[in-house]
Queue: 3 jobs
Job 1
Amino acid sequence: MENFEQKFDETIKRGLEIVKETEEDRLMTLSVGPQHPGSGHFRFTIKVDGDYIVYCDPDPGYVHRGEEKMCEYRNFIQNIPHLERPVIHDSTNITYSYSLAVEELTNIQVPLRGQYIRALASELNRQVYTLYWLGIYGIFLGHSTMFMWPVGDRELFIDLLEALTGARVTHAFNIPGGVRNDMPEGFKDRCLRQVAYFEKRLVEYEDIFYNNPLFRQRTEGVGILTKEDAIKLGVTGSVLRASGIPFDVRKAEPYDVYEEIDFKIQYMKTCDSYARSMVPFLDMKESCHIIRELLDKMPQSGEVRAKLQPNPKGPAGESYKRVESGRGALGYYIVSDGTPKPYRVKLSVGSFRNMLALPFLLIGSKLADMPSIYWSLNYWPVEADR
Amino acid sequence: MSSNQSNTQNGSEQKKNVTDSTQTSLSKKTEITIPEFESSIVNQLVTKFTDKIVQVVYVRPGRTKILVPPNEIVHVATFIRDTLGFDHAESVSGTDYPKDNQIEVIYHLSSYSDEKLSSHVLALSTRVDRNDSRLPTLIDIFKSAEYHERETFEMLGVYFEGHPRNERFLLPEDWADIPPLRKEFRIKGR
Amino acid sequence: MIKDLVNPTNFNLMVGKLGDVLTRALDLPLGYAINWGRIWSLWPVHLETACCSVEFGAASGPRYDVERFGIIEAFGSLRQCDLIVVQGTVTRKMAPRLRMVYDQMPDPKYVIAMGACAITGGLYIDSYNVLPGVDGIVPVDVYVPGCPPRPETLIQGCMLLQEKIKRSKIR
């Protein structure tokens, strides 16, 4: 018997020598590619050792449509329709920032009622975006009620936006100089009724989703991004506020009428995935108060846009303006050379800046945590690729 | 509204402040009130490095811009991070000026940890030659500029020395043309 | 008497005629049954190409419920799917992957081109990275115009596809 056991051990040893198993051979390369229910239109390559991820390399660019180059061939107003497509469900904010920058370059003054309506559309869009994000989070984690309820409630907000602007998602509502048209009659009452209904629903959301033991188990303690790392990596938006840094562009650098509005920055100090999914929800609650205050303080009548010129242009110069969109600080750097077309337009979007945190957080975590970390970083591939 | 007034102030300052690359010193702009906090930041920079290295392009409420030569950019950036307190780069972009035969690379820096600086964006810019565009990288100082620098390399052809991956990022794998954001790259049909 | 009728000369003829009668009797109902099964269970591949995916997601929501037509997004593998909805702009980087996904699906398969960018390039016709329409890569059955098309338009497109399948012959 001992002879047999010795021979058995020797055979195994010789077998392993022949195969020459090295460290590299134990790793398996996976490509979480553009066709994947867990990634959207974005690809990242990961190498897996057993159950743990040891290497991650993002590969964006599947929706790169060349927005910045196309901006140089159209004048300032013609740029609005294609600039609102990168974040199609949050389109008011991305054109808001563009309008602010162009108004600074071409010296256009926006009337007061136009500023209020702009801010109101921006807040309504923030609700719409966060509800869609919650819905897709539900799909990633296999929670289909979390997809159906937010997408259903989102339709009610889209009805409001359709009454205001005329389109469901691509509004083209903000132009340099104000907004295109005034609110219809009875809009204020509709809005207030919808906000009251939605606040009751938010209580139910908190019960069903955020106090759900399965959701908590999958997201608590997962993907910790400490405060110093968050500052060093330069992340923005809800990812930043979930790591304990109370920074919001609406408070740090108030644009338009946000100086008059009184609201609190929502932030959390536990730096995990659960905090990153809770902060947009708290932002939605705060947004309801902001909408009520805006409707209260709005002037009853007045112009909503400056007189439109056919080809606005200004002296040569440059401007950098940023706005708090659903995903973080969205900045525009526009250089103009005195002609009606911009010389250079650069978008600094929240998704591209948050992409740096993806390899940082995924390395060392388990493969099953990948969807909850990836989507909690609030990454929208179309926006990052522009 | 105060924001409207700041718009007009910006507009009038703009007509007098903005230049393209010529040197302007602070003493010439005596007609408008120059914001104090922003000019204190710029004064610190100008006193530490001489006027020859740091040229001030404009000083506006909340935005300032300085121009440094490419070989001094690492020292200036280290000073900005350690002494002034800016801790991350919001974006890195490049602009092609074929008339001056130069490419301007501009870093927009801001701060999360400092309360007073969080509304301020400092634009640090350099100019490199169009035919031989090499710059030292700033990712050891501001790690947040890593992917932005890679995108600037691919879109404009500016090589960052010291960056671990000067490769194509957003464009397709079989891209065989000149960098798209250069002015000689024309979109088809226009 | 049957033995007189069935002799070796006309045995083949009778079997042939019997086969003809059976085919004609069963072809129509069998084809109808197979088509009925295909129409009411079109499963799309989960491939979002660009911004129209938001309206596709809204179409799966509770208001424009597309699941009552049998269109459930199968989150398993794409070997079980038979519909591919090209949602939005197809860039030059995404095009080979789209063709790979189309090739891996089993027959019969159908393609819906959704949005103006998938039909002709749309708003981005002069971009350097965008294909002018997707019908150079995959054969398209139904074109759904709009930028982005409303969910009701997408449902009408699916119904047109169902009519097309009803009229097709089973091979």
Note: Chain A has one domain: 74-385.
Job 2
Amino acid sequence: MGVYSLKNIQINMTKEDIISKLTTIVKPYVQNEEGFKNLNENTDFINDLEINSANLVDIILDVEDEFNIEIDNDSMEKMLSVKATVEVIQTKMNA
Amino acid sequence: MKSAEVKKRVVITGLGVVAPNGVGLPAFTNAIKKGVSGITYHQNLKDKGFSCCIGGVPTILEEKKLEYLTPLQLRGFNSTSILYGCMAGIDAWKDAGFSVKEHSELDYDSGIIFGTGTSGIEKLREAIYKIDDQNVRRLGSTSVVQTMASGISAYLGGILGLGNQVTTNSSACTTGTEALLLGFERIKNGKAKRMLVGSSSDSSLYTWGGFDAMRVMSYKHNKTPEKGSRPMSASASGFVPGSGAGALVLESLESALERNATIYAEVLGGNINSGGQRNGGTLTAPNSEAVQKCIAEALLDSGVSSLEIDVINGHLTATSKDSLEIENWTKALQRSGTNFPYINSLKSMVGHCLAASGAIECVASVVQIKEQFVFPNINCDDVHPEVSALISKDKIPTQMIDKNITILAKASFGFGDVNGCILFKKYSD
């Protein structure tokens, strides 16, 4: 029953909800506060937020925990921007 | 910088320490003057079936960590050796008069030699469990940097922005003393102006377990932890494990004078050698001939006679090897009885901090020179008869004494039959 209700909540999550959760996840890794203030769908993790590339794997693990999904290697490589990450999350949640 | 024809004089301009009986230089100095023990009982050792359930662990509050590491650096952080090393290293660097800024200009004239035995052993355990659980992908980015041997020098190198040699050495319980001599040589030869040197060791039962299994740790003082570490004592029954870090900023005299820096003491010279596990030496026991040669050559290198030594800070772990160490000092210096210098062992207060011991004890040695005192040997009211047969009991102070110290000899000996000896001198131009 727990799993079923959890899945329902996930499916109903809007893009804005996902971005909001993602914003909380990336916050500790951000090194450009200006970029973080202006975070939007087109924000690039490395160019705009100056996140250390080594930390991208930590963000992916945090995303997996938060959204209760598992992200494969091919999807991981795409997750360099907010937009691409939201798409991967949506795909995995609806899978 | 080209290698100088004329060798540079090297002085100490900064100190930092994280010890079981004091975190930070003022607290540590106060503790060693008063003979405060940092040894406590640890229930987790008892729970895991250790014979020795006491140890020396520095007390560090969570908020204190944020003064040294960022919240991001502390995410998934599980390496006390790196934490202690960063704290001691940053403290020493600031103590030398430098600021620590995230975007400071890269300093090619300063480097780091910061040793350890194993790095982040608790983090390594975490990683091994995850991998065995077929969860290697869950290691994230924090596993490698905290478990690589050079993790400590890598963390410090980035925090301080140093561009000279940045490396980690490892020679068991000689590590810290060796780090200092390696940094000393680099400055002496004109390869660097400043070297942050030191060593650190984890507070972990996984670091200590192997020694418990070897039966070299004391199991007789679980109910009286502060009495457990008893170097040179008749009732010594093995060493008490400790942990922490010590750090020293070494600097060419000309650079220190140019900056008008506080000078704690001068490093006159020293020697590092190995007994080759020959002539009585083994992987775990010293070749006495090599120990004596190490001390004698350290004197030669420093250009001082054995009669000039005022104080010795020994290795003296509280195992059965203490009297052999004393015998080696008497032979190397050709001094014994009442003619022997004062001698003390910091391990009576903090236990054997293993890879960190040499650096923490070098800090204690230098503080004694700077403030002109000899710290007490605690737990040594019953001097071992083999020791008192070689040197006068008066030379093993059990209370702090004020003393004009000009020259202090510090030695460390480690598994692998390796030795290191340094001669420090009170600074005068």
Note: Chain B has 15 helices and 15 strands.
Job 3
Amino acid sequence: MSERGWEVAALEQIVGPRARHGFDWHPVRRHFGIASFGVNANVAREAGDVVVDEHDEAGGDGGQEELYVVLRGRAKFTLDGEDVELAAGTFLFVRDPAVKRGAVALEPGTALLAVGGRPGEAFVPSSWEHARFAVELSERGDNEGAVRLMEQALAERPEHAGNLYNLACFESLAGRHEDALAHLQRSIELDAAYRGYARDDDDFAPIRARPEFERLVAT
Amino acid sequence: MSAAYEVLSLDELDRVPVAEGLEWRPIRRRLGIRSFGTNAYTSERVGGWVVEEHVEGSGHEELYVVVSGRARFTLDGEELDAPAGTIVFLPENDVTRKAVAEEEGTTVLAFGGWPDRPFEPSQWEWYFEASEHEPERAIEIMREGIAELGERGWLLYELARHEARAGRRDHAREHLTKAVELEPRAAERAGGDEHLRELLP
């Protein structure tokens, strides 16, 4: 943060990892260090591109209400199976975290702002934000950096099964095999679904032959 | 409001004139958002305000997004050209901020909240809205605010003011007395109000 007490940026100056389905992700919250609500922007390059990954807010960190603002272009949202087309200047407020939501761009350059938080709770950044940056670091060969990011995520949300699992992944890749086994074990203790994920996860290739790993993923 | 989701266009938002061309377009209150504050501000004329000059007394950090037109921000005296797509973040609540429209129909979205505690709506949301209505409806709006936030100094003050406008002097006196107990600055403001001056305890 600058000493002048404020910061300014155009959306295009806020650069983040490209998202899994291809839209440009602009991590506004992380760029500015916003600590009171979550806010990011997604920009599709082409019509037909996914601009919001299908998800709900009931799982994972859970419980967020979300406001989407169409800044440019036009998007087709699908909300629990119902299609809704939104033009620039439209707000979509998803009050119920259980609603399955996703969107595709109907015009090139469609840009959305997504803002979220949990009613009645002080804001804590979503774990996936850290994980997305950690994946980018890992893909560039910086597995130690990825471990540090996930350690930060774990400090914000201790005993979070997803954070423990992701930390174990990057520790495995970074050669910290004992730590990886310990964190994977704890993630499975908290959520048995991670046992199945670990069986097929290439990140655990460095420890796959260890007897401890075999015991952890055994049914 | 209980629907699982809701769609609303900028054009459908209410327009509450505030000052110097600034129109307040309530979003949070309209949609029932409970985890952060958000509103839009529009000026249809060049030179009109799109952010009223203020420091953020609530302690909120604030994010502004210029969604249409072009604004000129003044932040602690420093000017900033902000075309549509510009995002301005103010983590420090004591920065004096203001913005004017450089094009007709400029609209700025504002988002805010506290970094270290759960969000709750600002009292001004109710008294801004009430200010647009005749006294009986304004009283209802202020009672809605008290029902949501509990008895707060400025909510009670504005309730008293509208009750005084409606000629309900006993209620107004009672609520003004309570308002001053909770918010001592209300006494000074009441001293300058033609409806409340004579009801001060």
Note: The radius of gyration of chain B is 18 Å.
